[in-house]
Design a protein that fits this description.
The protein is mostly helical. Helices cover about 70% and strands about 0% of the residues. The protein is built from 8 helices and no strands. It starts with a helix and ends in a 9-residue tail after the last helix.
Length: about 200
């Protein structure tokens, strides 16, 4: 039976979980930056030049926040930053879904397969952002390195289960087709208006 200090240590799973998600996102973006820039422009929330600059800076920002999330003295501020990023992603997705633009790519995961936006993605990001904000605003915990390792292990397990579930869901919901060539064409052509 887990004692209270061990239950408190499980709170540390939250920033480690967030770090794993941001690391995974940044790796996918850096693997095909041109395709991701096209995705960001297709959200139509920024002028093309700003969208391209945002797409170039985002993966490095995610990597930096992910790195700081695993450093105990800085976990709280990093959790606020990670929550802000996820809330921003949720807003961008929800805004386009509300506008009826359901057929655009979310920019999450591999650029080689389709990940169409859904309101459930926005709600999921908000839920994770809420967890990170709750951790950041909780009372400081007095824990030693064993609690740190427990939190790290719990966060890694939670992250791997989450990513596995996300992959299985994506395989069930989307057709299997390569997307990168389509996005590379989009990267070098103006965004065309959608018919709805």
């Amino acid at each position: 039976m887990l004692q209270l200090p061990h239950l408190a240590a499980l709170l540390l799973a939250v920033p480690f979980f967030g770090a794993l998600l941001l690391l995974r996102s940044s790796v996918h973006i850096l693997a095909d930056r041109h395709a991701f820039a096209a995705v960001v422009r297709n959200y139509r929330m920024l002028p093309d030049a700003l969208a391209t600059a945002f797409a170039a800076l985002l993966p490095w920002s995610e990597l930096a926040v992910a790195a700081v999330l695993i450093v105990p003295p800085a976990q709280r501020i990093a959790s606020w930053l990670a929550a802000a990023l996820l809330a921003l992603f949720a807003f961008a997705i929800a805004w386009n879904v509300v506008r009826g633009r359901h057929s655009i790519e979310c920019g999450c995961g591999s650029m080689h397969v389709r990940h169409l936006i859904r309101m459930s993605m926005a709600l999921r990001n908000l839920a994770i952002a809420g967890l990170l904000a709750a951790f950041a605003s909780a009372a400081p915990l007095d824990m030693d390195w064993t609690h740190y390792l427990l939190g790290l292990t719990a966060g890694a397990v939670a992250g791997l289960v989450y990513l596995a579930a996300e992959t299985l869901q994506a395989q069930a919901l989307r057709p299997r087709r390569r997307l990168a060539p389509h996005l590379r064409r989009l990267a070098w052509s103006p965004v065309t208006s959608e018919t709805s």
